[in-house]
Design brief:
By secondary structure, this protein is mainly α. Helix content is 50%, strand content 9%. The strands form three sheets. Strands 2-1-3 form a three-stranded mixed sheet, with helices on one face. A two-stranded antiparallel sheet has the order 4-5. The radius of gyration is 24 Å and the shape is globular.
């Protein structure tokens, strides 16, 4: 007789504190002990911090990172022992309804997606670099606007790549990962350059902080003094250097930095240091992405080789951790729900350019890419095999859960379509978080993403006998 293994995943949502509890009986047997596992993930809105910015204290509410706890209830040991006389002495693991060859093909397909996605991100970052070089050589408003367009284009492939995070792969390796040098946020504008009310703020205007503006200096200052918002490099630093603060002088309008900030004719002080900063910060983006391309290329002696050589189920566990963490925590909580709670554009992902809706759309597309097993490159070509995505895998090993996940992804896509429609109607994300009907739609998006993640955790346990954590 098998013992009971209860798997409970609960989500405590910030807005309505509704907890959905999923309970699943598994087929684990231990003749000496019944293992009761409570896995719960709680969001709380009682983790507050103050950030002094622009001469006033601003309260920011951060969602408490997802927490997971595994509790073993020794009090049930007598009950376990009562079953031991009629049970087997060996653990009976779940027999997988899929071959090893198929599992290896799924892992190989994923590695192909990652490489293509990072190659596109690198190529678009090089285009951005070229645009900045052209701007600094030929100083005019047209080149300035073209550089902003190049920044937006560079975000398109990179936003889809964030699903490859969260399992200590090359992007967020604790020792060498460049994620904090690429996409760190939120960003305190006054840490980099002038802001409204302080014309001399930031690294650019402080010879004491940065006597020389070069790559080593800017990297050393990133998240300086251990302050998360002291971001000095990455996409969002360049975004601020191109758009400036979004002061919402007109609803639906992004930051209005003048191109003259970079030239002596402008009113802003230190234009030469600002040019140097823009040049260095932009150059750092492709240099970090190049490392990721090499980590995943097919040349061997790199992370890709190790990833493919490991047990296929271990690799799939990492793939699912990346998907689950983005779907449950990072995207709905950190990037949407915090902004909903505060109603502040300071908490949106790309607040200077009003590009947050694209960040959200692209993060979801990244999840879909891994789910479907394909990635559409910037040239329109398609990489991957639709029969080797996570959906096809779960269609075989947990078909009911697979359909439930598909349903939640479709609900999320519907909400994203509504969000993008609102942008077309003149309400960017920073306006949607203060508009009641738009807020309701964003909450629907949060719910769909978290429900997808919850089903993913259960499907992995049921169909693959894998424990998937989604902690941030």
């Amino acid at each position: 007789m098998g013992a009971f293994f209860f798997f409970i995943a609960s989500f405590n949502q910030l807005i309505n504190k509704k907890i959905d509890i999923f309970i699943k009986n598994s087929q684990k047997l231990d003749s000496a002990l019944i293992e009761i596992v409570f896995q719960f993930q709680l969001y709380k809105k009682d983790h507050l911090y103050l950030n002094k910015q622009k001469g006033k204290w601003i309260m920011k509410i951060k969602a408490l990172r997802l927490k997971k706890s595994l509790l073993f209830l020794s009090s049930l040991l007598p009950l376990a022992l009562s079953f031991s006389s009629c049970g087997s002495s060996e653990n009976q693991g779940t027999e997988l309804n899929i071959s090893q060859t198929q599992l290896e093909a799924v892992v190989q397909n994923y590695a192909d997606l990652v490489l293509a996605n990072y190659q596109d991100s690198y190529d678009e970052a090089l285009n951005l670099e070229e645009s900045v070089n052209l701007l600094l050589e030929f100083q005019n408003e047209e080149n300035f606007n073209q550089t902003k367009t190049a920044w937006l284009a560079a975000r398109e492939p990179y936003g889809q790549s964030e699903v490859y995070r969260f399992y200590n792969g090359p992007i967020d390796d604790p020792d060498t990962g460049p994620e904090s040098l690429l996409n760190a946020w939120p960003l305190d504008e006054a840490y980099i350059d002038y802001v409204e009310g302080d014309a001399n703020a930031g690294i650019i205007n402080s010879l004491e902080t940065a006597p020389i503006i070069d790559a080593a200096t800017l990297i050393s200052l990133n998240e300086g003094q251990g302050v998360e918002s002291n971001v000095s490099v990455g996409y969002h630093a360049v975004e601020f250097l191109l758009w400036g603060q979004d002061l919402n002088t007109s609803p639906g309008e992004a930051g209005q930095r003048s191109y003259l900030d970079y030239f002596s004719e402008g009113a802003a002080p230190n234009p030469d240091r600002r040019k140097a900063y823009l040049n260095v910060a932009t150059d750092l983006i492709p240099s970090q992405l190049e490392m990721l391309v090499h980590a995943w290329d097919e040349e061997g002696n790199n992370y890709r080789e190790e990833f493919l050589a490991q047990d296929s189920l271990s690799a799939i566990q990492n793939i699912l951790i990346g998907m689950g963490t983005l779907a449950v925590g990072e995207l709905p909580s950190e990037r949407i729900e915090v902004a909903l709670l505060t109603g502040s554009q300071e908490d949106e992902h790309s607040c200077f350019s009003d590009n947050t809706h694209r960040d959200i759309t692209l993060n979801l597309q990244g999840i879909l890419n891994v789910w479907q097993g394909t990635y559409t490159r910037i040239d329109g070509s398609i990489v991957g095999d639709g029969n080797l995505g996570m959906k096809s895998l779960f269609d075989q090993v947990a078909p009911e859960k697979s359909q439930a996940m598909q349903d939640q992804l479709e609900a999320a896509l519907l909400a994203v379509d509504q969000m993008n429609l609102a942008v077309e109607e003149g309400r960017p994300f920073d306006q949607q978080i203060i508009n009641e009907s738009d807020r309701a739609n964003l909450q629907n998006l949060i719910t769909a993403l978290q429900n997808f993640g919850g089903e993913l955790v259960l499907a992995a346990s049921e169909g693959l006998d894998l424990n998937i954590t989604t902690d941030l």
